Amino acid sequence: MKKSFLVFSFLMVTVFVMAQEVTKQREVGVVFSNLDNFGITYKTGTNQSMWRFNTLFISGQKTIEKEDSSEYNRVSNGINVKAGKEFRKVIAENFEFRYGADLSFYYSYYKSDTDDKRVENNDRVTESSLYQPGVNLVLGFNYTIHDKLVLGAEVMPYFSYYTIVSKVTPDDPSNNSIERSGFNYGISNSSAMLSVSYRF
Q1: How far is 90 from 151, CA to CA, in rounded Å?
Q2: What pLDDT, on a 0 to 100 scale, did the predictor assign at position 173?
């Protein structure tokens, strides 16, 4: 919860600072990562400096499976949001170089409920939550068509810290949660992003 509060505080500060700027340009569009994750992007600022807000994906799933002797219920959902700043420099006609940085936050939840009807009171529940704040650099290019349609590509070297909280009942007699944490960093196919935006 503390990590969620820090991310929310950052977003509020950026919105306040952004309100102090003279807005001359906005862009809204869709983003693609690895060609299988997509989301929405919104940018506002000037032609040289823009605040950027991305929601890479929002996902959810619920599955119910029934057999003669058992029933399985699975629920999962997740969201990945980023907010940051990018700077732009025109390097050729209709061609821009851009660089900057984002703060990011990823959250996912998974729950599995297994009920073996052959054994009384044998309902087994597994729950897991992942919290992952991070930071990434932004290095990319824009190609503009008629000053309205913006095609973009960027790579985002990243560093993130994750915490996984899991719980299994009734296998855990103490009914306590198990917490694991660690960090990730690097650059890969999943840290590359394509975008198509409309400028106004």
Answers
A1: 14
A2: 57
Amino acid at 199: R
Pull the structure tokens for residue 32.
């693609």
Please give the Cα distance from 134 to 86 (Å, whole number).
17
Return the higher-pLDDT residue of 32 and 18. 32
Q: CA-CA distance, 39 to 31, in Å (whole number)?
A: 5
Residue 107 Cα distances to 50, 81, 194, angstroms: 26, 9, 22
Q: Which amino acid is at 184?
A: N
φ/ψ bin of 4: left (φ > 0), alpha (ψ from -120 to 50), beta (otherwise): alpha
| C-alpha to C-alpha distance for 74 and 68, rounded to whole angstroms | 18
- CA–CA separation, 26 and 44 (whole Å): 4
Asked if residue 198 lies in contact with residue 149, where contact means CB atoms within 8 angstroms, the answer is: yes
How confident is residue 194, by pLDDT bands cut at 50, 70 and 90?
A: very high
Residue 176 has pLDDT above 80, yes or no: no
Task: Indicate the DSSP class of residue 125.
Answer: E
What is the 3 state secondary structure string of 169-182?
A: ECCCCCCCCEEEEE
Q: Tell me the CA end-to-end span of the chain in Å, nearest whole number.
A: 37
Q: Give the CA angle between residues 176, 181, 12 to the nearest 5°.
A: 100
Residues, the chain = 200
Average pLDDT value for residue range 39-60: 89
CA dihedral sign of residues 52, 12, 40, 21:
negative
Token representation of residue 64 = 């119910």
